[in-house]
């Protein structure tokens, strides 16, 4: 079932940004375009299959531009983590804050990237 059909079937409020989840192994390998899941934040705790993002420390960056250049932001994040004595210890969560629904031109898109981290 498609993600959009599921949100309609479950009568979910879609006022929050839609997001994509990329597994840690893919991020480690530099594969930033294959999503394992799509998600959205909801205020309804009684869902049949809820997914709850783990508590912890996350490095957060905002990528401005096309999805095709998002690897540049990921690589900057990975360099920062290494330099500061951290390593990735979880999946990457992307939220599409400003997308084709909001603006014209891919150069104006904004994607929030959140990756769980821990000290080395």
Automatic annotation (TrEMBL):
Pfam families: GyrI-like. It comes from the Bacteria. Residues 6-117 form the GyrI-like small molecule binding domain. SUPFAM superfamilies: Probable bacterial effector-binding domain. Gene3D superfamilies: Regulatory factor, effector binding domain (3.20.80.10). This is GyrI-like small molecule binding domain-containing protein. It comes from Lentibacillus populi.
